[in-house]
Amino acid sequence: MNDRQKKTAISIRGLIKRYPDGTVANRGIDLDVFEGEVLSILGPNGAGKTTLVRQITTELNPTSGSIKIKDVDPFLEPLKVKQLMGVIPQEGALFSHLTVQEHLYFFGRLKGLAKGSAGAQVERLIPLLSLEEYRRKKIKNLSGGTQKRVFIALALLGDSPILVLDEPTAGLDPAARRDVWDIINTVKKWGRTVILTTHYLEEAEFLSDRIGILQGGELKRLGTLEELYRSVPKTYRLVYSGAGSESARNEKIVCDAADFAAVRKIIEERHLAEYSVRRLSLEDVYLELIGGER
Amino acid sequence: MFTWNLSEESDKGMGLKKTLSDITIIARIYYLQFRDQLGKYLFCGFLIPLASFLLASATAGSERPQLLRFFTGAVLLSFSMLTIMWLGSILIEDRFYGRLKLFITAPLSPASYVLGVLLYANVLGLVTSLGLFLGAQILSLPVRPQIVELFLVVFLTLTTFASIGVVLSQYAGSLQAGGVLGDSLSIIMIFLSPVYYSMEILPPGMQVLAAFLPPTYTADGISKGLTATSGVGKDILVLLVMSVITLTLAVRSVRWREG
After folding, report:
1. How confident is the prediction for chain A on average, in pLDDT?
2. Mean pLDDT, range A197-215, rounded to an integer
């Protein structure tokens, strides 16, 4: 299915956000997020990722340009848009005095669910997110990873078709991060649209259908992982030791090549006996695309 | 006529039923803090006001009019500590710790949020005032309460004070600044109003200032309501105007959207 045939969940056109101090955080972003896809937004600190997300979630007015969420304008009908979206805000926190099930029930009701439906969703989401043993525990007694699972459960309330996750695994240990990835993959299988920002490149690689790279407020690249690989001229890395003196032998020589055939040619030309070859990682591609800025 | 849009963020598709449900949910979320903060509530709502009453009575005499004045002061202190200081600090923490984000990203209008907070403050304050008025009976204060008048004075005062707490929480530049501002404002308001003394002994300039402060009318309304004296209607009217103004300011101060 090509892009023209896919249904658009979020449509962004010419989005510019200029803050009162003159900082331009988003510079004319055009982006379509398709129904049922996971789109990751990567970028160095200050690239404008959270600004973009906050405009999608109606928290921030754009300076110019337009956003449509399922054909609804978030600035004219913010409450309607908020019913279409489940959000994990980057700097959000839970109410420490509420239990897990109280959170889910109350915020289900705020999402517009009737008492019975809110209760039913609590019963459905608690086992789904492995929160059974914590359901009557107050938030202040939970670990960061468990709290993140509660956040995800909150975002899933009301069966919102779109999930906006702003750095959903920030600050989690690797095991907790993997748990969150599994949940996002499950949600993806349900056909939900997910837009997430992250600093973890392996997270974007593992979860995404497409990846967008923001830099200096501009969407520098947008595409599938393969398309991103193809957008850099050299995608293979050959590493070998120098020849001759001991210091030369200790020196590691790194050589990037366009494809595997080019790597083989270098190996043959230089008569290399010991070497390592690997395909560039998303991190290498990302650093190449953003010019080394972090 | 003061008006505010219940659906400042365009409530298309959100009926009155959803709005009322949202208001009660917000009130319940704040109410559940009692499980952890009962001690703080008793401290702010009863212990400190009672201590202030006993201290004032011990040092300034126990004549009937003075006792009533001190009791009224204790009620006002209780209200201001519960709403402007305590509730204000909770709302400021919600904003700076990121809990408010949960409401901002939910399909909830700012007006529903403010009204939910006010409902919580009113239930809390009304229960507290009931306890305090019962305390007046236990302390053998010579009171003949006018229930309806007292209820209106208490309700309008709590609405005004809680609205001030909401406004403070939205404009505070930092957690610390908000705390200091809330504490200072509630104490200054009580001491600049003729609560512990009569209006006549205030300098003329301060009398003008006191005329614009809600505690002036609360103190007068409560003392008249407790002694079945006529004239509470004027206090209720002024408090009604003040509560509408502060409530409007509170709703307008809450912005779910920046820029």
Report:
1. 91
2. 93
The model carries a pTM of: 0.88
Q: Are A187 and A138 in contact (CB under 8 A)?
A: no
Of the candidates A20, A57, A80, the beta carbon closest to that of B105 is on A57
Residue ending a domain, choose from A205, A230, A255: A230
Kindly state whether residues A43 and A136 are assigned to the same domain. yes
pLDDT at B7: 41
Of B28, B35, B106, the CB nearest to A82: B106
Q: B35 to chain A: which residues are within 8 Å by CB?
A: 97
Q: Which domain holds residue A180?
A: 3-230
Q: What would the DSSP string read from start to end of B159-186?
A: HHHHHHHHHHHHH-SSHHHHHHHHHHHH
Report the distance separating Cα B243 and Cα A15, nearest Å.
Answer: 41
Residues A260 and A153 in one domain: no
Does A205 map to a domain? yes
Q: Are residues A68 and A120 in the same domain?
A: yes
Q: What are the tokens at A59?
A: 């928290």
**Tokens 């009737």 label which residue?**
A114
Instruction: Phi first, then psi: give them for residue B55, nearest 5 degrees.
Output: -65, -45
Q: Which residue of A has its CA nearest to B259?
A: A61
Domain with residue A71: its CATH number is 3.40.50.300
Q: Which residues of A touch B (CB under 8 A)?
A: 17, 19-20, 57-61, 63, 76-80, 82-83, 85, 87, 89, 91-95, 97-98, 102, 106-107, 109-112, 138, 154
Conformation bin of residue A218: beta by default, left when phi > 0, alpha when psi is -120 to 50: beta
- The tens digit of pLDDT for each residue in A217-246 reads 999 999 999 898 888 888 888 999 877 777
Select the more confidently predicted residue: A230 or B219: B219
In this structure, the strands spanning A38-42 and A193-197 are parallel
Q: How far is B17 from chain A (nearest CA, A)?
A: 10
Shared domain check, A108 and A254: no
Residues A224 and A165 in one domain: yes
The 10 Å CB-count burial string (b at 16+, else e) for A135-147 is eeebbeebeebbb
* Domain-embedded: residue A294: no
How far apart are the C-alpha atoms of A188 and A210, rounded to whole Å? Answer: 13
Q: Residue A34 and residue A48: Cα distance in Å, rounded?
A: 21
A48 and A71 part of one domain = yes
Q: Can you list the positions of beta strands (E) in chain A?
A: 8-18, 24-34, 38-42, 64-69, 85-88, 162-166, 193-197, 210-215, 218-223, 236-241, 252-257, 275-279
State whether A62 and A88 are in the same domain.
yes
Task: Report the mean per-residue pLDDT for chain B.
Answer: 89
